[in-house]
Every structure is written in C-alpha cells, then in structure tokens.
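Long-time lurker. I teach an intro course on protein structure, and each term I like to show students one example going from raw sequence to a predicted 3D structure in token notation. This year I'd like something fresh instead of my usual example. Would anyone be willing to generate the tokens for the chain below so I can use it in lecture? Attribution to the forum is fine with me.
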Amino acid sequence: MYAHHHLNKIFTAFILLFAVVAVNAQGTWERVNVPITQDLNSVCFVDSLYGWIAGDSGIIFHTVNGGSAWTRQETNATYDVEEVFFLNRNLGWASTFNFTTVPYGTILLKTTNGGATWVSQPYPSEDIFITCILFRDSLNGWMGGQPHALVRTTDGGNNWTQAAIDTSTLAFFPVLSIQFYNDQYGYASGGRFDIAGVTWRTSNGGDMWYAIDPTQAPADEVHSLHIFDSLNVMGSGGDPDFGYGVGMIRTSDGGLNWSYEETTIQGNAYDLDFRNDTEAWAPLGPGRKFIYSLDAGTTWAPVPTPDLTAVYDVTFPDSIHGFAVGRVGAFLKYHPPVIPGMETISPRNSGYRLFQNSPNPVAGSTVIRFTVPAQDFAAGRAAFPLQLKVLDIYGKEVACLVNEPMPAGDHEVRFDATGLQGGIYIYQLQVVSPTQTFVVAGPEKLIILPGR
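-- Reply from a regular --
Happy to contribute to a lecture. Here you go:
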C-alpha cells in the first residue's frame, strides 16, 4: 500500500461532508436565480436532480440538474398552484385554487410523464381548497384542505372519499400536512389561526383518525410534521402576528398526548424538514429567517434568509441536498457544512462506481457493489488500494469491509448489520493513489431497521 505521507492532497466527494461533519456545525443557504418572478408556494424533489417548483398563476417549473436550469411546464391553469407532489420522476399531482369563478374550489392536476403534460379535473366538492398532497404509491393517496378535508384515494386520484374522523371538538378543522410512518401509522396537522392548532393520528391505515385532546392544543395552526418513529413525532407552528415565539409540538406515545413549547424566537414556522437525524430547518415566512436545530429539535437558533426573502417551503431529498422556495421567485439551495482545512472535490471520469446496497433497508445483511476501472493497471503496476467503510451519522467507523487493492471489474461485499442499532448509516469507497485520496460519489445511505 502506498504510504500516506506520499499523499500531497486530500480530495473527498460531497458525500464525505455529511459522513464526518461535526455535529455542532450547520450548513448555509444560497439564493439561485430562476426564470420566475411570481411567488412560489411549493417545492418537491424526488432526488438530488429532479425537482419541481410551483406558485402563482398556475406556474410549474421543472429541473433535471438540481436547479441549475429550469423548464416551464404547461399546466393550462391560471389559478395559483398551492401544492405540488411527485411520487417519482414521472408520477405527480398538484392542486390549484379557484377563488374567482363559480363554483369556487380546487382544480387538481395529474401527470404521468414528469409534467410534460398535465391533466386537470375539478375536485368533486365545492368550496374545498386542497393544501397538502401525499401519495404512498401510484394508487393510494391522501389530501388535506380547508375549511375541512382529510380525504383518500385508492385509484390514483380519480375518486376521493372523506376519511372517518372522531367527533371531538377539534375534529373538523383545516388540514395542512399529512405524513405516514408505515402502512398503519399516520399523522396529520392543521388548525385555524387564533383558535386552535390540531393534530390527528391513525393506527389502522387511515380507516379512523383521532384529533388531539383540546386541552393539549396550541392556539395556532400546526403547519408541518416530522415522524421520528411510530411513537415520536414533532410539528412546527407559531404565531403569524409575531406576538409569540415559534412553537413546536411533540408526542412520545404515538399521538395520544402532546406537549407544546414556544421558543424565544418570534414568528411562525410554516414548514419543517430534517436533513439527517439531528439537523432540522424551518422557514419563518414573512419573518425572513430560518430557524435550525442540531439536536433533533430540542433547541433552535435563527439565521437570516439570503437577501432577506420570505421563504415558506423547504425539502431535503437526501442528507446533503436541500431546496426551499418563497416570495418573488425565491429559490434556495442548501450547502452542507464544510470541514475546515479540507479541500472538497468530486473525482471526475475516474471510472470507479459505487452502487446502492441491496436490500435497503437492512434487516440482517446487505450487499454493497462497486466497480474498479481497468485504467488503474499499467505496466504491471498493482491496482490502487481501496477502503470500503461503513460510518454512523457522526462519521465514526463501524466497519471496514475492504482494505486492499482490488482487481478491475465488478465487486460485491456482504455487510452483516446484526448487532448494530437501527438508524441511518453511510458507506463510502475511498481510493488511495500516489498523489491523492478521493471518495467515490454514489448512493451512500444505508438504513438499518430497528428491533431485529
């Protein structure tokens, strides 16, 4: 193996940033120019490259390169697009609000080709305005709306039926967010400004939903939810009038009981998303700030948005890519924390490839595949040494699966995850040459199921 003191540079792929970043560092946001001046209400990325942004006057724009370039998609809609949701690169839905002509209500859009064409149909009930969309597969989906709607489809959105909800005081309030942990456990949130914030829970796949106990409800809407597991969930909200602090609501018993706490930061968190298990971001809309947490939402700190723009929607398709949208065509990209003193560059055209492990999530063992290019063999010289490592989310090595030169070609290594705590792990392929060390870019997230 080549001695490490011969290395005069260290190169690492973007993946490594997340794998070894210190837990007390947060990333930054950059505003990126887009060919849009209208307000943007919704952003959806199915991976780091394919995304959609939507907003005023029926606009939907699409990118296939992570937001570097955008194409406008023809929706034939003139009303504002409130929400856009894609299940994969092809199948998507959107909701638009008709406030101008009778009958008032929602016009639903659907595409099966990534938005190249959209087909519209009116939502069957008048005066219902759909604010959130979630599909678990191509047929089964949920939507929420106002003044009250928690509806499901089993045929891809052709037909919708109101879900069964308990008859408590807060049962029939506006629904702003819906999330499912698995086929059985799901949560929704919403409420009405200056009256009550509401959460709902289901433990039977949505056949019945139960609202929060009124004694535990906050005074304002709960805008978004994050599910840690089947028992632990948190939601974001606050006061749109800036009279009180941003509020976070939590449950640790599957939604039977909730606790609500206000931060010292005035405003309202209009969305909530986690970059990884511990780092979370929430935009404050007209407050022109983000708040972020590095300890899974226990404590929060504010940071101004780029150009002090109002941001309302944020998403992280993976641990190193984040996107957000807001007023006057604001589109933001997230930059992960940079390791001090380390140059970061992704090797180009190296020929090495790292593939997604299978199966994933992992219930026992999994196989990781990678390719070594032929160009590393010259004049009888041995291949460059390789290291295939598995790391936890803090960068601590939990396994080294390969630590030697490997011949050119395709390889696969079996990783036995038995005994490891359930959660998200990172695997990386490091190549050590006489002049540089780099990490091969590729799928890196490995999920170990708990309770094996």
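Some talking points for your students: Residues 14-20 form the longest helix (7 residues). The chain has two domains: 4-14+341-448, 26-335.
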